[in-house]
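Exercise 7.
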Amino acid sequence: MMDMIETKRLRPDDLPEQEFLLPGNRSCAGCSMSLYYRMALKALGKKTIITVPASCLTVLHGLYHKTSVKMNVVHTTFETTAASASGIVAALEAKGLGDEITVCGFAGDGGTSDIGIQGLSGAAERNTNFIYACYDNEMYSNTGTQRSGQTPYMAYTTTTPHGKLEHKKNMPMIMHAHGIPYIATSCSSYPQDVYAKFKKAKLFTGTRYIHTLIPCPPGWGFPTDQSIEMGRLAVKSGIFPLFEIIDGKMFLSPESERCLDPSKRLKVEEYLKLQGRFKHIQPEHIEYYQEYVDNHWNFINQFL
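Solution. The predicted structure, written as tokens, is:
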């Protein structure tokens, strides 16, 4: 098994200076996706073709004929990120360039876990050679904050005005069931971890999946200067574990290792109470949410 990249040893000055995301893009104030995307592109490097569906990321890219990204990008329809990536891979392989150029699809949580899951599942079953990156802001933020399969329990959206009654769809475990070689979770609040996992993903051949939590100030209802803290609270409370699954074996990232001990996890209430989308939540909901998180960590402990 190839050596693990030690994310805790990466320092800011270890990151490459070259920038592929230009300043002055059209993302919202406090958008943590901008930081995430900047780190991912640094890791992917210039020999990359990206495909992006209708999403917040197309807003960041900008309107034709100008763009904020210095990289080859294909804009595709909402449900076709994995299909588009598969086609690009086939074209590169036909030209003998399959080993020279990385293909990466970036899609939001709705475009991944809902409308786009059929193409992603098909590509993963074939083990098509690309990286698929889901940036998860837990709702359809670009179209007015509607519920998605990644919206958490009791979160307000315009289509769940009293709170969603179901928990998030577990996309990393769904992708694990496909037997692909590399799966990872990351969070925009840990940029070195984002960089390291995209860098690691490039070392594998076949379908690779990275699922990243992206705190969204307007959608979640918190001040724009708290995006980084919100992501860290999600990780420290154990709500969003950071890990890698390499050839079927799970490795917890350093930031989440402490959460194996229940006494070292923050209470979920510390995370929920800071977000407007949970302002209606009742004590019995918080208790149920805490039980869900604790049970998920019991599953992780057995998986390790």
